[in-house]
Queue: 3 jobs
Job 1
Amino acid sequence: MTSLLVQPTGAAQAPTQTRRRGRGGILVAVLRNRKASIGLGIFVVFCLLAAVPQLFTSVRDPNKLAFTPSETPSGAHWLGTTALGQDIWAQLVYGTRQSLVIAVAAGLFATVLSVLIGVSAAYLGGVADDVLSLLTNVFLVIPTFPLIIILATYAGKGTLLVVLIVLVVTGWSYGANQLRAQALSLRNRDFLESARVRGERRSYIIVFEVLPTMTSLIVANFLGAALYSVLTAAGLQFLGLGDPNSISWGTMLYWSQNQQALQTGLPLWSIAPGACVALLGVAFALMNYAFDEISNPALRPVRRPRVRRVHS
């Protein structure tokens, strides 16, 4: 006789998984999440390319016109050469550093600004909340990309600092709005009331009581801001609003467009940096989705109960 016994293994193991997650911390949760693992793996590869480009190419000056122009891919030049005689693979490897710096630095400073404005507005309330919320809403409704072009043009194009400032100024408002909404839901909780009764300062309560409960949301906002920075910076540099003499994926796209790479039989000059921009964006997006799932149980995939066959 054969019978089916359905055991709700997911429900039975839930307490054990919760305890393990508490002991292992957020790193274990990230490593167990498939999206986070894939995104983190792609990000680590790009970090290696940015940190030690000499390990991946023998060319030491990727801007040097040292090779035969318009060569096809070969063992000496994996992606061929540009119309000016530069190695495309070397430019791709060395360009990782600036693209990664822009993504991380702009994402970090935009997140810091979002935290300062969003959390402060929610906790302080009153006039401070009205003023900071008005400022956030103004930046939310302004068309972003035209504003970016105007700021980059009149602030003085050609420097990495200008690109970073433009990305931070235009990239903080969405995160600030999210963090304000979350902080509003925490403002009247018991643990904050007890901190006020103890006589703690507002700055102490915000930094040591409110922010630790919002860690997952802050990390998710950083990843979203970094994704925004990667794509926007590449767009700015492609339009010629960055430094055309610097080495980055955006400037590679700019020069390939100027030299009509697709029309002259050099498609990899355009495809390779575009693919890297897309891959780095995918890495940040996957990690962002993963942190949403880790911080919000309602977004996690539901595991079906296992069905075991018992023979008697």
Note: The first helix runs from residue 9 to 12.
Job 2
Amino acid sequence: MIEMQEQFKLEQEKWLSKIDLHNKFQINDLKFVAGVDLAYWSKYGKEYGVCCIIIIDYVTKSIVEKVNYYGEIEVPYISGFLAFRELPLILKAVEKLSIKPDLYMFDGNGYLHARHMGIATHASFYLNKPTIGVAKSYLKIDGAEFKEPKNEVGAFEFIQTQNEIYGLVLRTRKDVKPIYVSCGNWIDLETAKKITLHFVNEKSRLPITTRYADLETHEIRRIYKLR
């Protein structure tokens, strides 16, 4: 396990200098945005996972495509190295898309990671598209602090150390828990926040991109578990 962690760490460090937290696109040019999520289950002593990708029209906010891919999980869960466990299924699901999204949003973190290499950032190098990480809970990073945002839509606080901003905690709806937004790659934090808020509706604190992907993973997992 230690040898695997060291190998994974070297892979993360290889990409670190290639992260670019500036927009590689114009927000007005966005047409299709993908939401990505995964779910897991065990059967006959083996662990399986399914990746669901939902493509949303940026303007109409309607679903234009859904795909999924499932398979056996080969990599054990190791904190800080989740991408190595999830990426094989994600890339297989991406291959099934007929519509190529302009941007991917992940149910997870991006730059908000001890080595700035959460799934949204790591995956960007294989997808070659801008990415955003949207997490439901906070992944604690030593030395990083934040205040609770005000109880109003759009209120936020940076998650930062003395020298660096990792992401932000964002209130998407009044009287509900905030979410945690971070850049993946080829996007700045202000734009990541703006796009996230664009996809939030009255039914959830989460953007519909990752919310619909999350709902889809639960449904597809239920189907596959019965097989």
Note: The two ends are 32 Å apart (CA to CA).
Job 3
Amino acid sequence: MTSPYQRQLQEKIDRISAQFAAYNPPALQVFESPEQHYRMRAEFRIWHIENDLFYAMFERSAEGKQKKVIRVDEFPIADQGINSLMPKLLAAIKAVPVLAERLFEVGFLATLSGEMLVSFIYHRKLDLDWEQAARALGEQLDISIIGRSRGQKLVVGNDFVVEKLNVQGREFVYKQVEGSFTQPNAQVCQHMLDWACSVAGRSDKDLLELYCGNGNFSLPLSLRFSKVLATELAKSSVHAAEWNIEQNQIDNIQVARLSAEEFTQAYHGEREFRRLQEARIDLKTYDFDTVFVDPPRAGIDDDTLKLLQGFERIIYISCNPDTLHDNLTTLSQTHRITQFALFDQFPYTHHIESGVLLEKI
């Protein structure tokens, strides 16, 4: 009998196949998610009632106005480590009043390698008593803790976890900073990285990567090219990417703190950026034949699309098939889809993560 997950996945397959049929793509490759314990992040409100408290989420009414409080004792879509920790953490919080007082929200960030970071958000100022109690809790449960309230951030342990992902026979380590974007479904993320490396093949030329984040794709793709220039605007992501490059002992990646729009201006010689000079990046030393893009949901701006049209190959990972479809209106003028994939990062939701390899006509 077909499971609810398989039925919903088939709906996604049917939708994206129909949506992109006009571009005549090859057969769709489908990368499924585990049906349970796939999500490496989870956030819960802490609901206080009389002398008790519990994890809570909210369900909107049919009219979309009122919210119903749903008690959460277990969360099957979350990583098994999160589920194992949830009751232990709640019991420990209840036993220590300074940890429970005006606690508003708890967030979990886990890794496949077993590390755990827990963030606590409060509606009160945190003091030394809280910090001492949090330190004892961290030692008891072997976790790092971040306490937040208005204008405060107290870190007990680390404000990041280190994930380990296996891609085509090699292990890569990634610093994942609390509050920064990371792929929530680590097992599907490994499929995405494998797919990107497979379609990239091997080149004696260079790769341009736009929107590199913490270097999630940059690290494994660097083994496929002579050099990689990766761009990212967010400082925290740039710092994480640089840490990841160093920890993985990769020496052919440079990271430029530029937006995609800024890189386009620099590449065409329309603007000079001190950030490039300070990082000792000389665009003239690169010989690109491939560009990798993983843009935000809004897709790619018109000027950057025109830039992409000049590359022999485009590897495009998309978290929004609608904007990918729109962007292909431009890119299909110069390129054709030669690889097409669906990655089910977000089971039981309507969200679709997809990938295309575009090669020049």
Note: The first helix runs from residue 4 to 19.
